[in-house]
User: Which sequence fits this backbone?
């Protein structure tokens, strides 16, 4: 079996959302002498990307995404034995995500957190109706590279702007990227308030986070 | 080269050539066709859509004789509500608000709604809602619904009794998350039925379930069961089911209605199920992408809605509010964009109402 | 307010300015698609389907039939009274009219 075929088998195992299939594929790839980093990046992570796309297209659902993410975690655990310690603990990045103060909408933000987590980011979902300072405090505490700010209402989206201003005031703006999203947010709004990016949906949030943090 | 003034999905004015408009129309219809496995718009339909978009008038209108009923959702909140609901903050009573919609604006139907506009908070103030309905029905002539959002999110912690499935999912507690959604759906169904029993007693013409599916497949599951039960109890009740988004999000993933898995359904697949449950009118929704042009968005929305109209055994009143149905995502939507989207939905998608 | 007003001006049947409420009632009362609902109402009113959105035709006709007019005409049926006439005209039952009748001693 060629390397490319093996990567496809790994990705397909992830898409199947079955832990046993993923473990079998990972062990097979190991026995072929493929480097763990390649197994993860070109096989498992590629499969997770496809899972994200299938979720957006309504072909896979949230439980499947989580099952696939769980299966990937199991696969990575097996590979950790073959990897240097610093490589195994490496996450794609740390992201603090939440819905701004005054806005109780939770579901879209939670989907974004789930998809970011599934893609390999360390995500600290701090909930909804979150006091604005909490985003900054949590980012400090976790050494986050990105803050995700969700708002579903035109009345609350101003909180996204306020967090950016507070980051500037507290000397943190250069240390952390800011992503905004939610129904009333747009690219123009992101540009106006000086956010680093705007994401239209969960899979775009993953793509933009990778673009900015990797 | 001549350029035509169009809009981006966020409402900003842009200028495109005829060729650019055509390219965006083709890409938009192709996107819908690909996602929904439905037919793309024909060449003639795209020509007609381009013609509507390029009309020089600020406002366009349907051809005489092609008018459709325009139903109105979100109660009177657009009058007395705040910015969050595109409200204009005029302190009016709900009776005055309903009558203004009927008499000053020419709405074909109207609805009474609670300021929160979700079903759950209606329970503690149900008597207030009943008396408001009675007073309004004494004075109104157009059909008057009670309207609210199922909004199943209100049944999860910290707003409700059931553990937040989003948190459970992130902790890989999938079965627990699904169980929480099922419990929430049971309570939501029960509440919606109870509330509408009270409002039918007070003389409501019926109910408008607005933004169905906002909390995913569980939200839709609860709503369809409520529709089924209400239809059995009230054979003549007017029931409209309007959706929250184009795709039923698979938060649970396995819930079924009439042996059909709800997660992942597109508008043309939602319509027959809504009819089967017992609704009279279905309100399909297609989301607007703020990073694409009005040509792309409208072609995509018309493609989805046309397929829903074809598949539906009941009338379809397309949802055309802020950020859906080819309308820009903007608090004060531009008249040029709204009127073009409106005309296109009537004349190309063939909707039964808006 | 720009959204509903624009839709009504672009595509709507103008409610009780014309016959939009009647067509909507038939869609909800009998699950009628647009064409069927318009034909049903037009037949009951003795007009063409095009007339259903024509304020010129409908203004006088609504007053004659006692089904409510948009301007405030003294003595003309309004509210429940107008809807009771609509029930007869369209051969349907309207919930609030039923409730009203039920309260009469």
Assistant:
């Amino acid at each position: 079996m060629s390397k490319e075929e093996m990567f496809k088998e790994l990705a397909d195992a992830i898409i199947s959302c079955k832990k046993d299939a993923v473990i079998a594929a990972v062990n097979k790839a190991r026995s072929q002498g493929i480097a763990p980093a390649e197994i993860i990046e070109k096989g498992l992570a590629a499969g997770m990307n496809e899972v994200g796309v299938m979720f957006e297209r309504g072909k896979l659902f949230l439980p499947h995404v989580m099952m696939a993410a769980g299966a990937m975690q199991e696969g990575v655990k097996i590979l950790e034995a073959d990897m240097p310690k610093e490589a195994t603990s490496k996450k794609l990045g740390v992201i603090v995500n939440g819905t701004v103060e005054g806005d109780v909408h939770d579901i879209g933000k939670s989907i974004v957190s789930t998809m970011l987590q599934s893609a390999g980011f360390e995500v600290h979902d701090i909930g909804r109706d979150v006091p604005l300072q909490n985003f900054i405090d949590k980012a400090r505490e976790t050494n986050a590279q990105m803050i995700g700010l969700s708002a579903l209402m035109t009345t609350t989206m101003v909180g996204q702007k306020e967090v950016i201003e507070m980051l500037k005031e507290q000397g943190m703006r250069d240390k952390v990227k800011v992503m905004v999203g939610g129904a009333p947010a747009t690219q123009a709004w992101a540009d106006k308030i000086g956010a680093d990016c705007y994401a239209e949906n969960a899979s775009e949030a993953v793509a933009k986070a990778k673009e900015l943090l990797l | 080269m001549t350029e035509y003034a169009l809009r981006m999905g966020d409402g900003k004015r842009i200028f495109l050539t005829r060729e650019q408009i055509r390219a965006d129309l083709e890409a938009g219809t192709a996107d819908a066709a690909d996602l929904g496995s439905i037919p793309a718009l024909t060449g003639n339909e795209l020509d007609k859509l381009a013609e509507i978009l390029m009309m020089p008038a600020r406002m366009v209108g349907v051809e005489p004789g092609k008018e459709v009923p325009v139903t109105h959702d979100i109660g009177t909140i657009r009058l007395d509500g705040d910015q969050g609901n595109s409200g204009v903050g005029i302190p009016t009573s709900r009776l005055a608000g309903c009558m203004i919609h009927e008499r000053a604006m020419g709405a074909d139907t109207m609805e009474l709604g609670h300021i929160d506009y979700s079903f759950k908070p209606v329970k503690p103030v149900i008597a207030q809602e009943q008396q408001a309905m009675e007073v309004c029905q004494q004075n109104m002539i157009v059909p008057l619904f009670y309207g609210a959002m199922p909004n199943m999110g209100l049944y999860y912690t910290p707003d409700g009794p059931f553990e937040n499935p989003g948190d459970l999912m992130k902790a890989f507690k999938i079965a627990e998350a699904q169980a929480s959604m099922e419990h929430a759906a049971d309570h939501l169904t029960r509440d919606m039925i109870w509330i509408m029993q009270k409002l039918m007693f007070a003389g409501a013409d019926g109910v408008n379930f607005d933004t169905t599916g906002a909390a995913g497949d569980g939200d839709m599951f609860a709503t369809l069961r409520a529709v089924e039960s209400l239809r059995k109890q009230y054979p003549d009740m007017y029931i409209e089911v309007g959706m929250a988004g184009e795709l039923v999000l698979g938060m649970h993933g396995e819930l079924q209605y009439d042996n059909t898995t709800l997660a992942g359904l597109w508008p043309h697949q939602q319509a027959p199920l809504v009819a089967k449950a017992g609704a009279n009118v279905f309100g399909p929704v297609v989301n607007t992408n703020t990073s694409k042009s009005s040509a792309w968005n409208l072609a995509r929305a018309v493609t989805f809605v046309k397929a829903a109209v074809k598949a539906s055994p009941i009338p379809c009143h397309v949802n055309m509010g802020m950020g859906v149905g080819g309308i820009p995502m903007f608090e004060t939507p531009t008249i040029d964009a709204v009127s073009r989207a409106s005309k296109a939905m009537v004349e190309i998608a063939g909707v039964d109402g808006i | 307010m720009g959204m509903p007003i624009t839709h009504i001006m672009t595509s709507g049947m103008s409610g009780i300015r014309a016959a939009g409420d009647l067509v909507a009632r038939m869609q909800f009362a009998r699950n009628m698609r647009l064409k069927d609902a318009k034909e049903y109402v037009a037949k009951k009113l003795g007009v063409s389907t095009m007339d259903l959105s024509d304020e010129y035709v409908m203004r006088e006709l609504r007053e004659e039939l006692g089904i409510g007019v948009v301007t405030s005409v003294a003595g003309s049926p309004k509210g429940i009274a107008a809807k009771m006439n609509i029930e007869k005209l369209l051969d349907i039952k309207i919930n609030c009219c039923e409730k009203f009748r039920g309260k009469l001693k």
About this structure: Chain C has a mean pLDDT of 96.
